TrEMBL record:
Superkingdom, natural source: Bacteria
A GO biological-process term: DNA transposition
Name of the protein this chain belongs to: Transposase
Any GO MF annotation of the entry: DNA binding
InterPro entries: Homeodomain-like_sf, Transposase_8
Amino acid sequence: MKHYPAEFKADAVALYRSRPGATINSVATDLGVDTETLRNWIRVADGRRSGTSA
């Protein structure tokens, strides 16, 4: 399992949020990370833990 620095994760989430209409898949592909990895980073940034409903 690859580990990413916290700054990279925060930048990835910010990039996703700065692209209106972008999909998680498209941003993840651009960054070279797995779609579910980016999805989890977004959940964490939103204060939600992976696997829990809001």
